[in-house]
C-alpha cells in the first residue's frame, strides 16, 4: 500500500514538473508547428423559395448544408517557412476549379534579409477584400467583386519592407488565375503596394496583368477607426486580355461592435459588367446590400444575415420570384456557423 | 517510508505555494506589474550595464532597448506570442507586448515588467498569423474585453513569461563574465600518439 502511495506521489510530482515544462511561453516571434483551420455549415432561405443569388458559395436553398473543413499547417524555423492548407467540402470544390485538388495554400517562404522575403507556390490571391475561408470574411455570402475576381495565384514573389508603413510585393505568376499548372507560361505580372498610415489603417494597391489573364487593378483598405467601428472598402476594375468586356465595382464594409460578442456589419456593393467591344446600350449593373451579425461564442461564430440584390434592368437579371416570373431583385436569409481553430 | 512520503508531500506543497506567490501584482497606478528587488553587492555600474546588455542580446534579441538611458538603468520593450493548444500543434492567439525596466544602485538591483497589452491575431489569407489592427487590449481591461477563460489563460502565461524573464535577469547578473571567452584554438586529435 505504502509503495502504491509512494508511486502515486512520484507520478504526481513528475506530472507536475512535466506540466510546468509544457506551460511555457515563447520568447521569440518564431512559433512551433501551428495548426489552424475552420469548419462551417449554413442554412439559406431565398424568399422566392428557390436559389437566386449567384455569388460564390452557400448555394443550397432551404437546406442545412456544409461549407468546408479547412486544415492548415505552418512552421517557421529561422528564416524559412512553409504553409500547407487543405480543404474539403462544397465550398472548397467551388473555389478550386481543378477537380481532385484540395489545396488552398501551399508555398515555401524565405527571408533573404530582414526586409526582403521570397515566396513561391500556390497562394491565396493578393487581390480583393474577401477570401475563400469563411473565417476571413465578416459576411457569409460573398460579393460580386469576389466571385468575379481571382481566388488564387500560383507564382513567385518578392516582398520588400521599406518601413513599418510601406512595403512592396512584385511577382510573376501563372498565365491564368486559380490554376495549379499554367496553360502556356508564367506570364502574369503582379504587384501589391501596402501602405499603413497608422497602426489601425492599412491600404493595398494591387495590380495583376498578363496576356492571358487580362488586367485587374484593385484597391483594398480597412480602417479600425475606433475599437468598435471599422470601415472597409474594395474597388476593382478588370479588363480581359481579348474582346473587351470585364467589370468594375466597389463595396463598402462598415462594421460596429455593439458588445464584446456581437458585431453588426453592412456590405453595400455596386457592380457593373462592361459591355464587349462593339456592343452599345445600358451597362448591366447590380446593387446589393447585406446586413450581417457576427455573434461569437468562443471559437464559434454564428452569422445571421439578410441580403437584397437588385439589377438595373430586367434583361440582365436571372432572378425569378416565387411564381417563377422574372424579377430584377432577390432577397435571402442565411444563418451560418463557423468554428475557427 | 513515512519520511519519504512526508518529504514528497512537502515538495509538492512548496512548489505550488511558490508558483502562487511569485506572480503579477498591481502597482500604484493600478497596472499589472512584475516587480523584484535583489541584493547584489560588489557590482560596478559598468559591470551591470555590460551584463544586462549581454542578456538582452543573447536571450531577447528582438527586444527594443530605449536609447539615452541613465547609467545604471536599462529599459525597453518586448513581446511574446500567446500560444494555445496541444504541444505538437499550437494555435497563435495573439501577442503580449510589455515594457521592461532594470536598474542598479547601492549594491542592489531591481527589475520590473509592466504595460502589458494583448493584441489578438487572426489568420490571414495566406495562412499567416497576423495582428488584428486596432483591437489592442491592455491587460488591466482584459476582464471586460476578453472572455473569462481567455483572460485567465493570458494572465497565467504573462506571469510565467515574467518569471522566466526575472530568472534570466538573475542568472546573467550572477555571471562572472558576461561575454563568453572565445576559444579560437582549433582542437586537433593527434592520432599517432596513443
Instruction: Spell out the CATH superfamily of chain A.
Output: Porin
CATH architecture name of chain A: Beta Barrel
- Give the termini distance of chain A in whole angstroms: 45 Å
Going across the biggest sheet of chain A, name each strand in turn: 1-2-3-4-5-6-7-8-9-10-11-12-13-14-15-16
Q: Describe the largest sheet of chain B.
A: 8 strands, antiparallel
CATH class of chain A: Mainly Beta
Structural class of chain A: mainly beta
For the largest interface, the chains and their residue counts are: A-B, 51 and 45 residues
Q: Approximately how much helix is present in the residues of chain B?
A: 25-40%
Question: Can you count the beta strands of chain B?
Answer: 8
Write the element-wise H/E pattern of chain B from the N-terminal end onward. Answer: HEEHEEEEEEHH
Number of helices of chain B: 4
Structural category of chain B: alpha+beta
- The CATH topology of chain B turns out to be Alpha-D-Glucose-1,6-Bisphosphate, Chain A, domain 4
- Helical stretch tally of chain A: 3
The best one-word shape of chain B is globular
Question: How large is the share of residues in beta strands of chain B?
Answer: 25-35%
What's the structural blueprint in terms of helices and strands?
The complex is a heterodimer of chains A (341) and B (194).
Chain A: H1 2-22, E1 34-46, E2 63-77, E3 80-88, H2 90-95, E4 103-111, E5 116-124, H3 144-148, E6 152-161, E7 166-173, E8 188-198, E9 201-210, E10 214-224, E11 229-239, E12 247-257, E13 262-273, E14 285-297, E15 300-311, E16 329-340
Antiparallel strand pairs in A: 1-2, 1-16, 2-3, 3-4, 4-5, 5-6, 6-7, 7-8, 8-9, 9-10, 10-11, 11-12, 12-13, 13-14, 14-15, 15-16
Chain B: H1 2-21, E1 25-26, E2 32-39, H2 45-58, E3 64-65, E4 73-84, E5 91-105, E6 108-123, E7 129-131, E8 137-138, H3 142-145, H4 148-174
Helix pairs in contact in B: 2-4
Describe the structure.
The complex is a heterodimer of chains A (341) and B (194). Chain A has 341 residues and is mainly beta. Chain A has a single domain (26-340), classed as Porin (Beta Barrel). Helices cover 9% and strands 52% of the residues of chain A. Chain A has 3 helices and 16 strands. Chain A has helices spanning 2-22, 90-95, 144-148; strands at 34-46, 63-77, 80-88, 103-111, 116-124, 152-161, 166-173, 188-198, 201-210, 214-224, 229-239, 247-257, 262-273, 285-297, 300-311, 329-340. Chain A has a 16-stranded antiparallel beta barrel with strand order 1-2-3-4-5-6-7-8-9-10-11-12-13-14-15-16. In chain A, strand 4 (103-111) and strand 5 (116-124) form a beta hairpin. Chain A is globular and about 60 Å long. Chain A starts with a helix and ends with a strand. Chain B has 194 residues and is of the alpha+beta class. Chain B has one domain (24-174): Alpha-D-Glucose-1,6-Bisphosphate, Chain A, domain 4, CATH 3.30.530.80. Chain B has helices at residues 2-21, 45-58, 142-145, 148-174, and strands at residues 25-26, 32-39, 64-65, 73-84, 91-105, 108-123, 129-131, 137-138. In chain B, strands 1, 2, 3, 4, 5, 6, 7 and 8 form an 8-stranded antiparallel beta sheet that branches. In chain B, helix 2 crosses helix 4 (148-174). At the A-B interface, helix 1, strand 1, strand 2 and strand 4 of A face helix 1, strand 4 and helix 4 of B.
